[in-house]
């Protein structure tokens, strides 16, 4: 016999040889697949001839259904615990039972017939109980003793279906019952003694089997009577009408339906129904379960923790208070502000909020805001009806920042700036410098002078694209808030920090504060805006996009003196002569927007003359609003005197005269001599 896979692996010559051996007509044009199927068909025909279909059949066996055991049943005050009963019956069956004659029946059988006992049992749903089955078998055995002509009508229904008169099936004796009770866990296995071959129902009847065997029937009746008597003795009720280990008085609500035992091996040895019910619980014990001690309330930290920060409103309407320790970027110290609170208090991006917060609950990430104490240093009711920054009236600076009042911060740099290029509140100042001319040191001196002489002004030092060591030095030596984004940060971070600082300054100006922003440098800020701005298609000289300078212009143009109080002063540095065409374009764009210009000269710094200020090119627009008439007249004469000098000659002349005087008033008085 060849399989299809084996034939497929063979070549054409081998297949032809096999076909020839099987008497298959092979043609020349026959391919391998046709040969394989022809061989398989011929093999099937040969095997069919060897084993025809009329052979011996496998005999089927009839499986006799076994009644399932019951666990527990209750009918009023009558009931049976079949777990306990079965254990007792199994113990009694360990001894071999003797065949009892039919005459030795109990007194109950003599007085009452099985039919009467069967009628005495109350009717119930479900399967018949074991006692009912035994009474039915006794009735059937009694019917078998009837005459032969009536026996055919009294045959059990199960045997009558076969329409044959074969002898009764084999009945197991007491020893077989004992063997089946030894291993209760094998209830799912089929006992071969209970299997009746199907051929027994189809065999030819013998003449000697037509009449029932009297001795066999008597032995069967004796066994049934003995089994009934033993069960009645075991189930005899005590005098108090309750059996042992009764769960209650018959008033429980256990269902009458009998439950089969799935596995005797896992039946628990402890039965909850064996314990008597006792509802008499002590009063003190019962009250202990009902009374529960109230849990201690957790300490409420609401309105105990204070926080502050600059508000950043998200596009979805809610916002966060950003911390200055993280340069107003997202951080773990952020405070969540809901949309309702923002609308209720009229908050905007850049508002400085002092508030109370509570600890976050489960599932919350941030500290939520609970109440607001101050907004930009004002009461919330005052800030609610403020005028927007864009609608405030700008004026020329008319109040000068005094840089020479405090002796600790007064030096030659601040004296020269204070007299030649005065800075007023709301000034838009531009420090134009070449690299390595001392612009950072000059800006630091101006910042410390304003902080010492004008404590009402709020100073912010914004460092964009600067060196990290300069940021650290500025934070340690300048009495101002330092917000920095070093050159190793992306341009998006430069732009975001600059935007938050500008919004904060605008909100403070709206509330009437004087704010000063020192920007170093505006050229690097314009480069960052040019990097992040989308391409418009119009590119200026040096690679500057046409729309990229609009936002840095808006930043620098926000400096103004507000009518009625409040001012925003921006002092920014601009780089020139760096060799980059972009820096030249940026400076030209901002040159006309400022109203104060302070130029530094590289030739002065090379000669180590500081401050390296080009006195001839440095000036302030409308300085007549910042200085008195005497100072203006004397500065008029001084400027005419140094107008024909070069930067080095002019600086040497002023430097020598100023170093001999203590302050600017004395310097101006010395001009008369």
From TrEMBL:
Listed CDD domains: Rho_CSD, rho_factor_C
Pfam families linked: ATP-synt_ab (PF00006), Rho_RNA_bind (PF07497)
Binding-site residues, ATP: 424-429, 436-441, 467
Transmembrane segments: none
GO cellular component assignments: cytosol
Rho RNA-BD domain sequence ranges: 304-379
PROSITE patterns: RHO_RNA_BD (PS51856)
Keywords carried by this UniProt record: ATP-binding, Helicase, Hydrolase, Nucleotide-binding, RNA-binding, Transcription, Transcription regulation, Transcription termination
MF terms (GO), sorted A to Z: ATP binding; ATP-dependent activity, acting on RNA; helicase activity; hydrolase activity; RNA binding
Region (Disordered): 143-189
GO biological process terms on file: DNA-templated transcription termination
Enzyme Commission code: 3.6.4.-
Top-level lineage group: Bacteria
Keyword rRNA processing: no
NCBIfam families from the UniProt entry: PRK09376.1, rho
Oligomer status and interactors: Homohexamer. The homohexamer assembles into an open ring structure.
HAMAP family in UniProt: Rho
Function recorded in the entry: Facilitates transcription termination by a mechanism that involves Rho binding to the nascent RNA, activation of Rho's RNA-dependent ATPase activity, and release of the mRNA from the DNA template.
Family (UniProt): Belongs to the Rho family.
Protein name, entry field: Transcription termination factor Rho
Designated gene of the protein: rho
